[in-house]
């Protein structure tokens, strides 16, 4: 998963920070926001989106379904409607496995 953990945990992250974390365009996030009702970042007085950790967690799941599993928007929405808990759990497992793989590759390179 190309998701990069934020270096510093904050209450709110900007659109640019979130786009960088997922290595996608801000327009992609705005598009997903229109199609996934539970993804609703708050907006400040200027109208700039402010993402919480919950928003990031929701984006991880959406990213996993759309980008990694290759589902369509309709397919991802259906999957989330069927059993969101299983999808979230699977996303977390994949993320942990990718971290382990990365650590093992690092160890291998240092041998």
Automatic annotation (TrEMBL):
<dbReference type="InterPro" id="IPR000551">
    <property type="entry name" value="MerR-type_HTH_dom"/>
</dbReference>
<feature type="domain" description="HTH merR-type">
    <location>
        <begin position="12"/>
        <end position="82"/>
    </location>
</feature>
<dbReference type="GO" id="GO:0003700">
    <property type="term" value="F:DNA-binding transcription factor activity"/>
</dbReference>
<dbReference type="Pfam" id="PF13411">
    <property type="entry name" value="MerR_1"/>
</dbReference>
<dbReference type="GO" id="GO:0003677">
    <property type="term" value="F:DNA binding"/>
</dbReference>
<dbReference type="InterPro" id="IPR047057">
    <property type="entry name" value="MerR_fam"/>
</dbReference>
<dbReference type="InterPro" id="IPR009061">
    <property type="entry name" value="DNA-bd_dom_put_sf"/>
</dbReference>
<protein>
    <submittedName>
        <fullName>HTH-type transcriptional repressor YcgE</fullName>
    </submittedName>
</protein>
<keyword id="KW-0238">DNA-binding</keyword>
